């Protein structure tokens, strides 16, 4: 018997924190640590999985492990991300519930790795087959592509996601994947032009330069040396343990699997090369007559050749800026600083638009027409605190606040409120609700102020924005600023004047206000987008549709902040419609190192994630909750005893349901099969009637036609009408046979007894002589008379007649050959019923063997044969041959016939033998 591991068997520490005794922050951290030290990185809080980044590869994701966790109950085996994936997949497949996997944690905690593990587990356990496998591969291989273009090395994580990703995997009713949709959230595009110390640009830049062949680099007009490119940071261009060249091959392969055509891949790399080349454009000032400086591109840059943009068009776009109002068009020159700004804005836009295009292109490959069930996997950029935090960090952290909010809503708030609503005795468990921070950022708060500033006429700077914040948010508990109207922070020297600080759920973050307005506006000078649209490069042209002069839109595009807010709101709505599964990732140390568990760091995360509160609610609450309607919907099929109340254990209900489902399936099968076969039978019956009526119709027609075409009744008439229909072939032959037999019978029925006798004899003759004797065919037409001598009439034969008392069957004159000398003598031959007489002229009968010839030999032999058979009941031994050798024996003085045998010997007739 299979021995199953119980959750409590051989468990290191406590696998489910709900069972932890006593429960305290200390015991919680100790339990995590103990398990972490024994490579147990997963721990449950009820159905929530807490995952600690091991920073080393563990042998716990093998195909054997997948099999181990496949179709097992959640608590049956030790905690694992596969158990959560299995639970989510099975409830999607078996209970038709759309699922979402919410993976949260700060940067470097292991969210992206967790999302890939979930996807690979689901891919391993769901259906197989060529088509399904291709879909799976495309879904899985979208990860390396997006990671190459959207991830980068940061000080917190060597493979940090610099964009938010939500992927809906779509399944059919059997649970086989059909495809998916990826949504991406605001890429940190500022990284394209500048990276903080110790960080890198997006991986793809380094991958191309390291992994492309010389030929490819030549085509892209690139050089392998990173130091040639201003946009690539040099101090940390290599990442430990990462081989960019190998990764480049992986990415190219993945692009191929996802469905990128070769020319598309080439275009994508050309855009990447163009971005690198943009970074190398330098400007010099050139004085103009009006005394202002105008920027000019210093050296010729290969970007124009690469992208097919006219050099003069690009140069002009970097020297002038055209402002268009309704009827006016004003052109101003750009100074060198503005030209650099424009260059960087173009590079950032080019890259981020390429990234969005990539996502759209992948979606095209994996899109599904019919949607049945969905599993969403959310992997966003984690909460982060850097030395210098800007607009990007603000957006990233806002997104994390929203996710924390959804977790609080669903696990802490709603459950407690439900117990109170249901009048269940309940002691409220305190927790920190970060709704207040979300409110500070989105509704009447920072993002709204930022948008207001961006849209306001007049001089708008980052400082005016900060001023505004200082007024509006001054009294907010989570907002801190030196210049706020609230005097609390007047003397806080750790807070520079150009910054504001937010107390996030995960810690305080100080944001440099510089760049907020600009990044929120996200404006690209129209001259630049028009220059890009003029590129002789279909991809670049497609990335800048607004550059088309025919489609000039003077309306201001929505700000980056409001766009992000709207897409996050949509995401939250989407997540709320699905059954959530949580993976809460924790970072054990700040060194990206294995085996180090920093109590303080973990404790901080446990606190802000609200994990302890989570355990408390789980311990005090019910193990299982379900809205009444869903419960009724699920179990109403069982029986009257389960409705409307069931007092037994819940799992029993599930077992009963399973059994009932099988019974119902059998019933449905039975009814279906009955219906199917009955329908088939009725159809066949109907068809049979139709076929039979047509058949009868044709048969009738056939017989009527045959009636008019019947051949003569002569048995030797060979005519027979042609077959009218192929399907009557055998009938037609049979009819011919029957008709022939019938007309033969008819013919025979006309015979008198005398004729019958003659024909019997003729038949006998045929059996004896047909095909044996050459003279036989000539005899067929001659009737057998028998009485050739008319002995009763001729007085000459009176004496003869008297000698033979019996009835004579043949009487004629034959030529007897004398055996002694071969001479021929005429004799009378009479064959009565019982004996055989041969009379010579003298009247004396010869004795012994004799030879004779006759004109009625066939008749004679036949009659002789018949007489002998009827008298003696023995067949006369007749030897038939066309030729005999005649021996005239002078010794004995007789003639003997003999036949020549194959060995050349002669054979002579024996006693009672007739040779003919
Ligand atoms: N389960 C795991 N097993 C082994 N190593 C892991 C695991 N999870 C994470 N790591 C290591 O930690 C690194 C960071 O993980 P990951 O990129 O998933 O973090 P993240 O939470 O997505 O961070 P960010 O928010 O910056 O994107 C990985 O590159 C990998 O080296
Ligand atoms: Mg990540």
TrEMBL record:
The positions annotated for binding ATP are 105-112
Q: Myosin motor domain location, by residue?
A: 12-699
Q: Where are the transmembrane segments?
A: none
Q: Which GO terms describe its cellular component?
A: brush border; cytoplasm; microvillus; myosin complex; plasma membrane
Query: What GO molecular function terms would the record report?
Result: actin filament binding; ATP binding; calmodulin binding; microfilament motor activity
Task: Give the UniProt keywords, A-Z.
Answer: Actin-binding, ATP-binding, Calmodulin-binding, Motor protein, Myosin, Nucleotide-binding, Phosphoprotein, Repeat
PROSITE patterns, per the entry: IQ (PS50096), MYOSIN_MOTOR (PS51456)
InterPro entries, from UniProt? IQ_motif_EF-hand-BS, Kinesin_motor_dom_sf, Myosin_head_motor_dom-like, MYSc_Myo1, P-loop_NTPase
Domain of life of the organism encoding this protein: Eukaryota
The processes (GO biological process) annotated in the record are:
actin filament organization; actin filament-based movement; endocytosis
Q: Does the record bear Transit peptide in its keywords?
A: no
What range does the record give for the signal peptide? none
Region described as Actin-binding? 568-590
The answer on whether this UniProt entry bears the keyword Methyltransferase reads: no
Q: Which PANTHER family match?
A: MYOSIN (PTHR13140), UNCONVENTIONAL MYOSIN-IB (PTHR13140:SF277)
Instruction: Give the record's family classification.
Output: Belongs to the TRAFAC class myosin-kinesin ATPase superfamily. Myosin family.
* Name of protein: Myosin IB
């Amino acid at each position: 018997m299979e021995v199953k591991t119980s959750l409590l068997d051989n468990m290191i520490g406590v696998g489910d924190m709900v069972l932890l005794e006593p429960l305290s922050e200390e015991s919680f951290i100790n339990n995590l640590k103990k398990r972490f030290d024994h490579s147990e990185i997963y721990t449950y809080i009820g159905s929530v999985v807490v995952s600690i980044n091991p920073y080393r590869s563990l042998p716990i994701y093998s195909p054997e492990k997948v099999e181990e966790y496949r179709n097992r109950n959640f608590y049956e085996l030790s905690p694992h991300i596969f158990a959560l994936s299995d639970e989510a997949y099975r409830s999607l497949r078996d209970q038709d519930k759309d699922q979402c996997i919410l993976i949260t944690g700060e940067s470097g905690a292991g969210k992206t790795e967790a999302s890939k593990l979930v996807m690979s587990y689901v891919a391993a356990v769901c259906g197989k087959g060529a088509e399904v496998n291709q879909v799976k591969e495309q879904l899985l291989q979208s990860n390396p592509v997006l990671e190459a273009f959207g991830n980068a090395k940061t000080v917190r994580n060597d493979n940090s996601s610099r964009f938010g990703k939500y992927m809906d995997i779509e399944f059919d009713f059997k649970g086989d994947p059909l495809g998916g949709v990826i949504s991406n959230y605001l890429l940190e595009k500022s990284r394209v032009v500048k990276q903080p110390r110790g960080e890198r640009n997006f991986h793809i830049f380094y991958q191309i330069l390291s992994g492309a062949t010389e030929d490819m680099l030549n085509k892209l007009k690139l050089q392998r040396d990173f130091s040639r490119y201003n946009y690539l940071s040099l101090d940390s261009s290599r990442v430990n343990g990462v081989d960019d060249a190998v990764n480049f091959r992986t990415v190219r392969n993945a692009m191929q699997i996802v469905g990128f055509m070769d020319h598309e891949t080439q275009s994508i790399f050309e855009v990447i090369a163009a971005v690198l080349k943009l970074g190398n454009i330098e400007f010099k000032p050139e004085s103009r007559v009006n005394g202002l400086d105008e920027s000019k591109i210093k050296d010729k840059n290969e970007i124009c050749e690469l992208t097919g943009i006219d050099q003069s068009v690009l140069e002009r776009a970097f020297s002038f800026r055209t402002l268009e109002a309704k009827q006016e068009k004003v052109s101003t020159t750009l100074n060198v600083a503005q030209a650099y700004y424009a260059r960087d804005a173009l590079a950032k836009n080019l890259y981020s638009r390429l990234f969005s295009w990539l996502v759209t292109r992948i979606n095209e490959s994996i899109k599904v027409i019919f949607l049945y069930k969905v599993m969403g996997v959310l992997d966003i950029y984690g909460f982060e605190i850097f030395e210098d935090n800007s607009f990007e960090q603000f957006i990233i952290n806002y997104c994390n606040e929203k996710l924390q909010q959804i977790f609080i809503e669903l696990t802490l708030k709603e459950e407690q409120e439900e117990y109170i609503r249901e009048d269940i005795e309940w002691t409220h468990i305190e927790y920190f609700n970060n709704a207040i921070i979300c409110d500070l950022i989105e509704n009447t708060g920072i993002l709204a102020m930022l948008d207001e500033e961006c849209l306001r006429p007049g001089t708008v700077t980052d400082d005016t924005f900060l001023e505004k914040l200082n007024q509006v948010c001054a009294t907010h508990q989570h907002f801190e600023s030196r210049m706020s109207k609230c005097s609390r922070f007047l003397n806080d020297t750790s807070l520079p004047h150009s910054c504001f600080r937010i107390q996030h759920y995960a810690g305080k973050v100080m944001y440099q206000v510089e760049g907020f307005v600009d990044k929120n506006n996200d404006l690209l000078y129209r001259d630049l987008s028009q220059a890009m649209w003029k590129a002789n490069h279909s991809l670049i042209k497609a990335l800048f549709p607004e550059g088309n002069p025919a489609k000039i839109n003077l309306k201001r595009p929505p700000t980056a902040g409001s766009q992000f807010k709207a897409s996050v709101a949509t995401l939250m709505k989407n997540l709320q419609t699905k059954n959530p599964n949580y993976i809460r990732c924790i970072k054990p140390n700040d060194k990206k190192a294995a085996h180090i568990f920093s109590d303080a760091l973990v404790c901080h995360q446990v606190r802000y994630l609200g994990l302890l509160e989570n355990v408390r609610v789980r311990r005090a609450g019910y193990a299982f909750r379900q809205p009444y309607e869903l419960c009724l919907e699920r179990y109403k099929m069982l029986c009257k005893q389960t409705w409307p109340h069931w007092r037994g254990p819940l799992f029993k209900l599930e077992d009963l349901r399973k059994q009932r489902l099988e019974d119902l399936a059998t019933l449905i099968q039975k009814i279906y099969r009955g219906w199917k076969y009955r329908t088939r039978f009725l159809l066949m019956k109907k068809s049979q009637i139709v076929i039979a009526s047509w058949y009868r119709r044709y048969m009738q027609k056939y017989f009527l036609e045959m009636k008019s075409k019947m051949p003569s009744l002569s048995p030797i008439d060979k005519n027979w009408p042609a077959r009218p229909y192929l399907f009557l072939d055998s009938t037609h032959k049979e009819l011919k046979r029957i008709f022939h037999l019938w007309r033969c019978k008819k013919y025979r029925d006309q015979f008198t007894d005398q004729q019958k006798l003659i024909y019997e004899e003729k038949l006998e003759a045929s059996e004896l002589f047909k095909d044996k004797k050459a003279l036989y065919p000539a005899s067929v037409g001659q009737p057998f008379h028998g009485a050739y001598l008319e002995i009763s009439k001729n007085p000459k034969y009176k004496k003869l007649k008297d000698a033979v008392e019996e009835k004579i069957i043949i009487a004629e004159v034959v030529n007897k050959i004398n055996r002694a000398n071969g001479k021929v003598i005429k004799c009378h031959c009479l064959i009565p019923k019982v004996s055989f007489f041969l009379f010579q002229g003298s009247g004396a009968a010869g004795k012994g063997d004799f030879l004779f010839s006759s004109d009625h030999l066939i008749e004679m032999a036949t009659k002789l044969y018949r007489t002998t058979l009827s008298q003696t009941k023995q067949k006369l031994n007749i030897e038939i041959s066309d030729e005999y050798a005649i021996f005239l024996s002078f010794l004995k003085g007789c003639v003997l016939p003999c036949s020549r045998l194959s060995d050349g010997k002669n054979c002579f007739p024996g006693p009672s033998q007739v040779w003919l």
